[in-house]
């Protein structure tokens, strides 16, 4: 692995493919133990989480379901502020053990708006799994139940994360060279 160029910026290797897969296997093993009798429903948030969600789900060895959604953010009224809407969420969450799957939690803004909407449906448990988080960027604290890596507040690329549309297909994670 060496420095790569995407659009106008340079990125250096940060987390290798083997280390990523190893950590995701550990996360899947922990979740398989914790949730073995729960038949959890994984809800993966597109686009960024597609690769993490696929690998995590592949490494689970318990009965589990998965559904992929997109979150659309739009300006609500003055009283509601910004609103996030889930596109493609057809499942009834009542009484279910639900695991939200994210590639990265940085400011926490999206989940701070989205999780309360899901709580309305009265799931039995509502858990969050995120491959990455940037604690220095967190504005709306989110409890992450299953975390891959805690990273500095620098722009990352690869393994689902894009820079202006490109880089999602990289099997490892790169960091912006500043
Ligand atoms: N890279 C790409 N997409 C992102 C990031 C990042 O570091 N943080 C939130 N979305
Ligand atoms: Mg992006």
From TrEMBL:
Keyword entries, A-Z: Cytoplasm, Glycosyltransferase, Magnesium, Metal-binding, Nucleotide-binding, Purine salvage, Transferase
GO molecular function: guanine phosphoribosyltransferase activity; hypoxanthine phosphoribosyltransferase activity; magnesium ion binding; nucleotide binding
Presence of keyword Metal-binding: yes
Residue ranges occupied by any Phosphoribosyltransferase domain in the UniProt entry: 19-163
Pathway: Purine metabolism; IMP biosynthesis via salvage pathway; IMP from hypoxanthine: step 1/1
SUPFAM superfamilies, per database record: PRTase-like (SSF53271)
Entry's Gene Ontology BP terms: GMP salvage; guanine salvage; hypoxanthine metabolic process; IMP salvage; purine ribonucleoside salvage
Cellular localisation: Cytoplasm
Cofactor(s) required for function per UniProt: Mg(2+)
Enzyme nomenclature, EC number: 2.4.2.8
Reactions this protein catalyses: GMP + diphosphate = guanine + 5-phospho-alpha-D-ribose 1-diphosphate; IMP + diphosphate = hypoxanthine + 5-phospho-alpha-D-ribose 1-diphosphate
GO CC annotation, single: cytosol
Family to which the UniProt record says this protein belongs: Belongs to the purine/pyrimidine phosphoribosyltransferase family.
Name the UniProt record assigns to this protein: Hypoxanthine phosphoribosyltransferase
Gene (name only): hpt
């Amino acid at each position: 692995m060496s420095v790569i160029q995407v659009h106008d910026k340079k990125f250096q290797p940060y987390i290798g493919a083997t280390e990523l897969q190893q950590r995701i296997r550990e996360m899947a093993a922990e979740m398989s133990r914790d949730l073995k009798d729960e038949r959890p429903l994984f809800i993966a948030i597109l686009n960024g989480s597609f690769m993490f969600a696929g690998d995590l789900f592949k490494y689970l060895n318990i009965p589990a379901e998965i559904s992929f959604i997109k979150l659309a953010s739009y300006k609500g009224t003055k009283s509601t502020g910004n609103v996030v809407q889930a596109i493609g969420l057809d499942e009834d969450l009542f009484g279910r053990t639900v695991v939200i799957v994210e590639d990265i939690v940085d400011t926490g803004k999206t989940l701070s708006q989205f999780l309360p909407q899901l709580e309305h449906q009265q799931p039995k448990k509502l858990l969050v799994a995120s491959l990455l988080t940037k604690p220095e960027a967190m504005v709306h604290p989110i409890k992450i139940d299953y975390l891959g890596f805690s990273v500095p507040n620098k722009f990352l690329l690869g393994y689902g994360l894009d820079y202006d549309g490109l880089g999602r297909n990289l099997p490892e994670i790169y960091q912006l060279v500043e």
